[in-house]
């Protein structure tokens, strides 16, 4: 069953948080001249038209990237992220497209870096392939993203970053992310890994934290932005990124911008954010 389509959600508050973290990790990887490997296990299509029926139907981007688009007081870090989105809007004034994780990465990778993008959806995969056909150092594959950690790690570069961003429409995804990390870490313990997670039911999300704690892996940072308090009702109340082996600067970079994101993305005043270690060094 593959019914999830990211086009309904592209550019929402969860994407903003996820893509800011993605950008900061990739920027950090680029501080060293040596090339690295980037694996995006659940890629989506890479670029979204915000006037599409799907995006307009939910209007989620209006409460995400839409709330940052015209701000004149963006913190430096947030401004670099908005600039990446401006670039795929032809530097234009109006917000027409949103970049998925592969397009954020494609703009940051250098010729010595390399990426693999996997996507399973029969309709989304051809769109993804088409969006990246001009990029020499980016390969796309219609395959199960979770299996790519076992299949492609360790990278020949011995430097790498893996983004795992499943839809969680199947409950087993909450366990599969932990299994995938175990597989990856066993092969490549010095890599950086980021897992995106939603908070729909807090108990489900906790399964990931508990599962990761049980692996014994150290240096796991959690970054979360809640738009409203946890609730038993349907719907996502918060989202976050779990980062294993984060760049040492990430914790403070996120602590510096989350107050701004919270007040700008959620002007209603119900936002809460946390940056904390699931397991420290
Ligand atoms: C949340 S979206 C990805 C969004 C994208 N990472 C971004 O930030 O722009 C999740 C994607 O995973 C795809 N998917 C679901 N199960 C998958 C699997 N086992 N392997 C690869 N892709 C899968 C879905 O079709 C969907 O496009």
Description:
- The structure is a single chain.
- By secondary structure, the protein is α/β, with parallel strands linked by helices.
- It has a single domain (6-279), classed as Rossmann fold, CATH 3.40.50.
- The protein has helices spanning 13-29, 53-58, 65-68, 76-87, 101-108, 124-131, 148-152, 173-187, 202-215, 250-265; strands spanning 37-40, 47-49, 97-99, 114-118, 138-141, 160-164, 192-199, 220-226, 238-244, 272-279.
- Strand 4 (114-118), helix 6 and strand 5 form a beta-alpha-beta unit.
- It is globular and about 45 Å long.
- The mean pLDDT is 96.
- It binds S-adenosylmethionine (SAM).
- Residues 2, 4, 6, 18, 42-44, 100-101, 118-121, 124, 144-146, 165-167 line the site of S-adenosylmethionine.
- The record marks 4 as: Interaction with substrate rRNA.
Shape: globular
- What is the number of independent domains? 1
CATH first level? Alpha Beta
- Give the biggest sheet: 8 strands, mixed
Look at the helices and sheets and give the structural class: alpha/beta
Query: Can you give the mean pLDDT?
Result: 96
The radius of gyration computed from the alpha-carbon positions, rounded to a whole number of angstroms, is: 17 Å
Share in helix: 25-40%
Tell me the β content. 15-25%
Please tally the β strands and state the result.
10
Family: Belongs to the RlmJ family.
EC number: 2.1.1.266
Subunit structure: Monomer.
Catalytic activity: adenosine(2030) in 23S rRNA + S-adenosyl-L-methionine = N(6)-methyladenosine(2030) in 23S rRNA + S-adenosyl-L-homocysteine + H(+)
